[in-house]
UniProtKB/TrEMBL annotation:
Signal peptide range: none
Name the record gives this protein: Cytochrome
Keyword Lipoprotein: no
Family: Belongs to the cytochrome P450 family.
Gene Ontology molecular function: heme binding; iron ion binding; monooxygenase activity; oxidoreductase activity, acting on paired donors, with incorporation or reduction of molecular oxygen
Record organism: Streptomyces tsukubensis
Swiss-Prot/TrEMBL keywords: Heme, Iron, Metal-binding, Monooxygenase, Oxidoreductase
Length: 403
């Protein structure tokens, strides 16, 4: 008689709450009781959720847990893929010397440093405009979104002509859902078409940033040329990931400072501590939301769990970043906290390569906000913020402010 396997009962469903102003209550329970928990994702797949700082760091640093295999056909997933399946294999071309070198150069410290003055000008221009408009207004629409698009366009060499249409080319693509849907593919195609047009423009080879590098790579005489769709995907993906992550973090950072005015005042009086403050804002904010995914490449013991090859492992960043074994009083925002081994940029071989850009983006924007808008505050109770559902980041739909 064939033995019927016992069905796995997950500890909870994932993702957790989409609110970005309160650490999900499950985090503390998970760290204490289920540091490597069994969860069911929105696609119905089973996954392992890692919530302590120690184990999360191990997953992110150990090549046993692969990020590349997350995109393989048939792999368990957090949510349905929203870009065309046939382009998954093209991701392998990102490791080509020319393409990878162009991408890394685009977000390198020298490029970011050369863009700093432009970032400052744009921040001040946007604050000039919102001050002229007068309160109340939506800080997301009037500052964090247009500022971030401008920064990304400057670094990537893209024309900054219409930030709304730029963001519209990624908004639906990075929604999360249990099944693919038509709008996601249409949104992806729109973004790729826009980038392909830019790459093929006659003057693209003279453009700055990644656009120029990829256009020159496209024109180079090669026995194995990189297809246009892969070049466009590299440009679109870097813009998409950078804009979504940076704009959402800046929104969270601004909200945190408004909710802790005494710390904002202290930072305004001592701007030399801004770098340390940004690290704490990175640790404390909840923008990541859906966990960092990896696929186990072999059977391995992790904590009290036996992970099998092919299993999906999710790092709960908000759990690790609020772990009291790694951070004293983790629930407290401490803008002087040091050391601060947060995992908001990941760790190991897949540590985010755009960390210099992300930090400069936030440093410059927050310095301008603290200097120019000393009385910035929420226009509505924090409990009335409307947190978006079905999106890859935790973000509020708008951030109404006074000053």
């Amino acid at each position: 008689m064939t033995e019927v396997p016992t069905p796995v009962v997950p500890d909870l469903d994932f993702p957790l709450s989409r609110r970005g102003d309160t650490v999900p209550a499950e985090c503390a329970w998970l760290r204490r009781k289920r540091p490597v928990a069994r969860v069911r994702t929105m696609t119905g797949d089973l996954a392992w959720l890692v919530s302590t700082h120690e184990l999360a760091t191990r997953v992110l640093q150990d090549d046993t847990f692969s990020m590349l295999r997350v995109g393989e056909a048939g792999a368990p997933s957090q949510y349905a893929p929203t870009f065309p399946v046939e382009l998954r294999n093209s991701m392998a071309r990102f490791s080509d010397d020319g393409l990878r070198g162009a991408i890394m150069k685009a977000v390198s410290p020298p490029v970011v440093a050369a863009s700093a003055d432009g970032m400052r000008r744009r921040a001040d221009e946007l604050i000039d405009a919102l001050v002229a408009d007068g309160p109340p207004l939506d800080f997301k629409q009037h500052f964090t979104d247009p500022y971030t698009v401008s920064v990304m366009c400057a670094v990537l060499g893209l024309p900054d002509t219409d930030w709304r249409s730029m963001l519209a080319c990624l908004d639906i693509t990075i929604m999360t859902a249990p099944e693919p849907f038509e709008g996601a593919r249409a949104n992806w195609d729109k973004g790729i078409a826009r980038m392909t047009t830019r790459l093929r423009e006659p003057g693209a080879v003279r453009a700055a940033g990644l656009l120029g590098s990829l256009a020159r790579l496209r024109e180079a005489d090669s026995a194995d040329p990189v297809p246009d769709d892969v070049l466009a995907m590299a440009l679109h993906t870097l813009f998409e990931a950078g804009a979504a992550s940076a704009a959402t973090f800046l929104l969270h950072a601004t909200l945190l400072l408004m909710c802790h005015p005494e710390q904002a005042d202290a930072l305004r009086d001592h701007p030399e501590h801004l770098g340390t403050a940004v690290e704490e804002l990175l640790r404390h904010n909840l923008s990541i939301g859906d966990g960092l995914p990896r696929i186990a490449t072999r059977d391995i013991r992790l904590g009290d769990a036996d992970i099998k090859e092919g299993d999906l492992v999710l790092v709960l960043v908000e759990g690790a970043n609020h772990d009291p074994t790694a951070f004293t009083s983790p629930e407290r925002l401490d803008l002087r906290r040091t050391p601060n081994p947060h995992l908001s940029f990941g760790a190991g071989s897949h540590y985010c390569p755009a960390t210099t850009l992300a930090r400069a983006h936030a440093d410059i924007a927050l310095e301008a906000v603290l200097r120019r808008l000393p009385d910035l505050r929420l226009a509505i109770p924090v409990e009335q913020l409307n947190w978006r559902t079905g999106w890859i980041k935790r973000t509020c739909e708008r951030l109404p402010v006074l000053w």
